[in-house]
Amino acid sequence: MPATLPSQQAETDSSSAQNTTNNNKPVQVKLVLLGEAAVGKSSLVLRFVNNEFQENKEPTIGAAFLTQKCRLEDKVIKFEIWDTAGQERFHSLAPMYYRNAQAAVVVYDITKAASLDKAKSWVKELQRQANPNIVIALAGNKVDLTAAADEDHEETEEESNNGEQSIREVSTEEANAYANEVGLLFFETSAKTGEGVNEVFTEIAKKIPLEHILAMSRTRPGASGNTNGRVDLRNNGVTGRDSKSGCAC
User: pLDDT tens digits for 27-49?
Assistant: First the structure.
């Protein structure tokens, strides 16, 4: 077998080192959160990024930006998360945030049926105007409210006959059937307790065509779908930052 020349060995070592570097380099994935005001979008992001929950959180103005890294098998994914405002007056800004996004989480409140209708309109808009390969997850938030209601009041047959209703207005079956019909991932979550939150981002990560994203980044160096003017969720400073916490996936 021919001996490896020093120059060839150096080239081989360099190539191996480059492959290792590429494997360790995070794959940037732009993700946008959409949904009606007060459904808990910002709380979901805070739970995922910082593993914390804030009562009576102030409404998001415009959009907020956070990042979180997540390891999936041999790759590290860096979610670049745009948390958009739910108020109708900010609706026209949404395309600026979901443009070129590889993923979206559309959030509704399981205790408000109207918020699911709004979520459906967001899904239609994404499917019509966003990246055709975008991965969309539907998240029914605030399941902790139904659990609390069940603990505080066990409905009897007599009370049921008198017309008392559960605090839940959107059944799991209804939302899941809709998600299956239009090809969405589906989850029920609680930003307050953390239930289901990590699963949303983990399953999205599994569905993202990472090899395609890597190929695009090699042909267009520096392209990540990111925009300038990053807004920090907690202090509204134009800073942008990586979370100090560990991977939430």
Answer: 999 999 999 999 999 999 999 99
